[in-house]
Amino acid sequence: MFKSSNILMAIVLAVAVHAPATAQDVEAGRVKSQVCAACHGVDGNSMVGTFPNLAGQSWRYIYIQLKDYKEGRRTHEIMTPMALPLSRQDMIDIGNYFAAQVPKPSSFQADPDKIKLGMAKANETLCAMCHLGAFAGQNEIPKVAGQQYDYVVKQLKDFKARTRTNDAGNMTSVAQTLSDADIENLSHYITSIR
C-alpha cells in the first residue's frame, strides 16, 4: 500500500525530470559545450556529415550518450576521451544547452526516389513507434529528423554490425533486417525530414 507521501514524492520527481531547463542551465551548458563546437557546431548544427547535429535533441538523450561514452557502453576515438572528465552535472548542462538550440535543415540533397523507398521502409519497420511522428524523438530515443546523412548511415551500419550496442537491443534488432539499400534509403528519408 502506497502512503500519500510516497505518491507526492513520485509526482515531484516526475515533474522535476520533465521540467524545462532554466536559462541558467542553458548558460552553464553553453560555457561547458564550447569544446563541442569544433565538431558539432556552436549551436549544435554540425557542418560535417559524419558528426551528428545536437540542436533540438532531448537533453536526456545527450546526457545518456555522454554517460555511455564515459562508462564505456559506447565508444568513439574522439567522444570517449571527451566524455571521461565530465561530471553528471556537466553532462546535464551540455544536454540542456543543445536541447534549447534550434535545428537547421540539412544541406544534403536527398534523392526523391530514395526518400519514397526510405519512407516505405520506415513504415514497414515501425520506426515512428519509438522515434515518434516526424521522427522528433522522446526522452532516451533520439530525434533523427534532419540528421546528417553520413552519420545516419554509419549508425545504422554500426547497429547492424553490433559495433554499437548501447540501445538495449532495439535498434540492433531492427538493423538486422535492413539491407545496405534499405539503410541508404532510410538515411535519405530521415535526412530530408524538416
Describe the structure.
It is built from eleven helices and no strands. It has two domains: 23-99, Cytochrome c-like domain (Cytochrome Bc1 Complex, Chain D, domain 2), CATH 1.10.760; 112-192, Cytochrome Bc1 Complex, Chain D, domain 2 (Orthogonal Bundle). By secondary structure, it is mainly α. It is globular and about 45 Å long. Helices cover 56% and strands 0% of the residues.
What do the pLDDT scores average to? 90
**CATH level 1 class label of the largest domain:** Mainly Alpha
- Count structural domains: 2
Tell the overall outline: globular
CATH fold-level topology of the largest domain: Cytochrome Bc1 Complex, Chain D, domain 2
What portion of the residues fall into strands of 2 or more residues?
under 5%
Number of helices: 11
CATH architecture of the largest domain: Orthogonal Bundle
Helical coverage, percent range:
55-70%
CATH homology superfamily name of the largest domain: Cytochrome c-like domain
Helix and strand string, N-terminal first? HHHHHHHHHHH
Give the arrangement of secondary structure elements.
Elements: H1 4-18, H2 23-32, H3 37-40, H4 59-71, H5 79-83, H6 88-99, H7 112-124, H8 128-131, H9 149-161, H10 170-175, H11 180-192
Features:
single chain; 194 residues; mainly alpha; Cytochrome Bc1 Complex, Chain D, domain 2; 11 helices; 0% strand
